[in-house]
Amino acid sequence: MKKIVKISRAFNQKTGVTAVFLLLLSLIVTSVNAQGRRRRMPPPGQPIEIQLTPYKTTMLGNGTDTALISVKIIDRDGKEVADANKLITFKLKGDAKIISFRKVDMSKSVTTDSTTQVPVTGDCWLVLQAGPTRGAIKLQASADTLYPGSTEIHTVQPGTPHPVTNANYTPAKVKDKIIGADISFLPELESRGMKFSDNGTPGDAIEIMKAHGFNYIRLRIFNAPANPKGYSPKKGFCDLAHTTDMAKRIKAAGMKFLLDFHYSDYWADPQQQNKPAAWVGLDFATMKDSLYNYTVKVITALKDQGTAPDMVQIGNEINHGMDWPDGGINNLDSLAQLLYSGITAVKAVSPKTIIMLHIALGGQNAEARFFVDNMLARKVPFDVIGLSYYPKWHGTPEDLKNNMADLSTRYKQQVMVAEYSQLKQEVNDIAFTAPGKKAIGTFIWEPISTWEGIFDRDGKSNAYMNVYPGIAKEYVK
Questions:
Q1: pLDDT tens digits for range 341-354
Q2: pTM value?
Q3: Which of 98, 224, 263, 356 is the residue whose CA sits 20 to 30 A from 276?
Q4: Which residues form the catalytic set?
């Protein structure tokens, strides 16, 4: 565990689910098994983990909706081990059932009241069917000697949409192509004494990135991160004060700025969207007002110092909603109202700021369409559809390509990859070339401090950094 913390505090905080922990395993040489004994990680090509990739994580709670889930036995580098043969036990919690498997010899399967065990060689597919109720479905896959895989699916009953406004909205356009990065960890790393350099020449991390083609920086902000259960207890990194300081540096470097509101004291993502402590217990009307006033406060502070954000995310990876339970995906009208409060607050202070809605779902087209359709049915006014793309959870590059192609032709909004890390060249090739001239670029997530970073652990730029000048030359005019 100490090695994991040393590698990056980011992933210990970004989500509390097992999946993030498993991702880090590919970065280390040794690990700790369930009994606490240290063991050496097997070499590439040896099976180590079960990967579950759902093609929906939101299903209709109508008793008939289905979701396809990919199951792979992978090695430490995330590659499928095609000849690995394991008995995998699937355990399901919630109102759903597994109705079929593909690429599995079902004559050798064993089913109990709570589990299904099947032999898997390399990979298989399963089809999950939702029950008639709303709630969370949890699926876990385990096998002897392998780290387990898991996923969570929300079942919803959308109801009749109630628009947040009667006005019709024409999405604004981002004129620039974007090569961006979320480097919110920079102040924390610098506080520990980390220095940066490029080919032996010391320099500011932001300026080095700019010299290699980056033109946009994303910063995340939390309401009260210094709270005991916040993102940065006592220190308050990613609060308003740190954000205004970083915004000055971004603008001084001649770069543009995306602000990512989590609307939480802690990480917000599809597995957790917790209200700020100050909003717990508020009635819904007061909570909407609180979200509006907080957003106005932040944008005003930034505008007053000449660093108004060029783009704002209203929430982070909100395909399961935000500020649960009020704004959960099962409460689509309430979610739309919270989004509208944030959007109108931004526009009241900075009318030209572009609005992004950020969902995970890089390769999950059906679910991406479900979310966008429901927000548009409620007339939520926004400009950009932002996707996260991590191959482990969001499918293949082809899935990403197909999803972006569909979204960019189906909707008036522009489309971009708002988070990614791996497959840098491939992701950018896809993100800049979706049809309809609506694909505007990418934001890489924390490349100064996490896996496949563009700086080494000692702050030296590396080969991953050198990918970006070529991307900039080809796609940023």
A1: 999 999 999 999 99
A2: 0.91
A3: 356
A4: 317, 419
